[in-house]
Amino acid sequence: MSFLEMLDVMNEELVAKGEEPIAFDHDCREGICGSCGFMINGVAHGPERGTTVCQLHMRHFKDGAELYLEPWRAKAFPVVKDLVVDRGAFDRIVAAGGFVSVATGSAPDGNAVPVPKKNADLAMDAAACIGCGACVAACPNAAAALFTGAKIAHLGLLPQGQPERYDRALNMVGQVKTEGFGSCTNIGECEAVCPKEIKLEVIARMNRDYLRASWTQRGDRFRDDGA
Ligand code: SF4
Ligand code: FES
Question: Is the pTM of this model over 0.90?
Answer without folding.
Answer: yes
